[in-house]
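Section 3.1 - Work completed
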Amino acid sequence: MLNVEFPVSGARMIKEDTFFRLLAWAVAFAEGFSTLAVEVIAIRLAIPVVGSSMTLTGVLLAVILFALSAGYWHGGQLSSRWSHSRTRTALTVNLFLAGAIYAAVSFPFEASLLERLLDAGLSLAPAIGVAATLLFAVPVYLVAQSVPLLAELTNDEGKAGKASGRVLFYSTLGSVAGGIVTPVYLFPNFGVKVSTYAICGLLFAAAALWTASHRRRWMIVAAGAAALAIVSRAGLGSPVPANQRFRFDSPHQTIRIVDERRASGRLERAMYLNGGRASAIYADTGETSVGYVLEADRLLAASPCALVLAVGAAGFTFPRDVSALTEVERVDAVDVDPDVLDIAQRWFLPQPLPAKVRFVPLSARYALRRARTQRVHYGFTLLDAYTGKAIPAELLSQEFMADVRAVSARTAANVILDRAAESDFAKNVLATFRQTFGRVWTKDVDPGDSDLTNYLITDWPIAGSAEWTGAGRIYLDDRNSADRDHTRMIWSEE
């Protein structure tokens, strides 16, 4: 009897052990996926308030990594003295609790908490750090305990390194998938809100499967940091162009000031932001030489007002020019990068800005919402934050445009589009603008330019403009593919 039953019992044990390991690796993969997705979502939810920057990414990741390290250490301490039954229970409870905190607190309140912290007077980095700590440290800490706990459950060979390596391997594979799938597939196809629900649901499903694993994805973070370091150092090692007057890598962007000779032979001084030509003046006189700025100058001069708003500093040429109008009492220049003011005054203009110009170093979303709350009303607004090869997609959504409309009597926007305005980016931008303002007119202010040209978009007809009556998709905070559409337009033309 023993010789007959033993193989059956042994086969059953082997089968159950195999199922247990496959389940453990599957949950490890799911946990790794969810954790990196949480990081991506946390950054994405903060962008409408504080803008996109390395400060946001660096501070948020630092808080998460600190919470991870605490969870790893404490989870290891607990797993060394707990029974397998208690360890399994702890895994389930931690995952359910983390998913609940993300769903009920972290994701819904991140943006509003950031706004409150900024209103309280905190600067950018501390505000992000405090918000990330309050909202994400606890759930990340709970999830991080899964790694040592799951390693302890699967360490039936007495080889802790081998067991931990396997858990981290599958968890890291999940992180790779989460880092790619979340921004590339989930956001554009289902929206940010649905993506948060999906990730929380994944945590709940993993917990329901009895166990969970939070992958040790420090290798991915390290690889990403190394890649960024290599890219930045590559620029430092390159020869400095002879016509380059200044270069600075701020936390938000790379700023370059260069002297360029026009076809007419006249020398221009140009400011480049992240590779895009943002502004230019004649080097000999300091007069503005950019077509769209000159057009905006003329529009305001024809119908001046007391309060003027410029979103996107762009070398401060427009604020400087229109401040000379006697009817203009103040020009607010909003830019998320505080370094642009000093650089513009020292290296680009180079002269101090007039007293009428007030620099507002805040994200445009936050600045506009604050102006709306304070009932500030501008007679004219120029949106000039869309140049370059990378754009702030959060400044192209209908929600942002609604904030602009609420504080502006007349609004013009400078946007680089394909000349025929047939790209998805062009049609969607114009459709979003029209959806918010009712009607939209466009004017090509650089008719001799290349396939990509500066369009001045206005909410009222101006000389030489044409009303746009095409069709496009509306950019929304919850579903916004402006960055991808813009990239396709830019690189398809080069």
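Second construct:
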Amino acid sequence: MTKFSVLDLVPVREGATLSEAFAAATALAQKADELGCERFWVAEHHAMEGIAGGATSVVLAHIGGATSRIRIGSGGIMLPNHTPFQIAEQFGTLDALFPGRVDLGLGRAPGAGPELQRALRKNLAQASEYFPQDVAELRALLTGDVELPVTATPGLGANVELWMLGSSLFGAQLAAKLGMPYAFAAHFAPDHLDAALALYRRDFQPSAALEKPYTMVAMNVFAADTDKDAQTLASSQQQSFVALRTGNPGKLPPPIADYTATLPAPARAMLDHLGQAAAVGTPQNVRGDIDAFVKRTGADEIILCGSTFDPEARLRSMELTIEACANVAA
């Protein structure tokens, strides 16, 4: 049976506060915990007024304290923005607070312009080149499998599940080489999905942490009582995608009925392209789309994405999705 998890960007709505964004993320995690979801991940983004998950480990500490069973983790930490030692300390602390519940998903793309690079005091182009070495160093800081001149405390001996994130073949190759579980960001970059999964499974080398390949794929999912209601729910995120791709990112806007009908052809084509990793509609239709996607990808796990302007609508969407997909199998 396919497992389901949740990815949250901690969106900040137009007219709402950061405190309200964190409260909504907490309520979403609690509902995911109640529904039996496997894990709840928060993504690292910086200098974006519509996304509040920049201090990812701090947000996860709050989420962990508000939940009881669900795994908590990063989807992901952009390692070039940090040092391996700092992340080992942060996630070692999380593991000590929430033993056996912590995931550390790692990404290579910092997504930062010159101003943010200066603010982070990082040469991110150079840091990205060292990403494979930094991943290996981080794993050694946590596991002690390689002797290092410094010990992370907290960190060493922490039971943190390391994941490789990706939207290209690079992450798939590195995940396979290091024997790590692999999560593909099809919700915003579906182009290399099939090739990346095939490469990862073909070249996978077992490790102490993982004996055989394990994949998770991200989908944008919006479920409601009618297809039209679900399409309207999805329009807030669609507006955000269009704004981001046109260089005008902002806070999450209210939904617009029949939004895509108002768009020029290039914007509609972009959203249609992203739609190959999406399920929008009634619970029955969402189940059918997810089932087809699982059969296509062979994913062991689907991580549900999809910001809604009304936090209660996302809770309801997730509930309808999980109930409808209770028996979806790869």
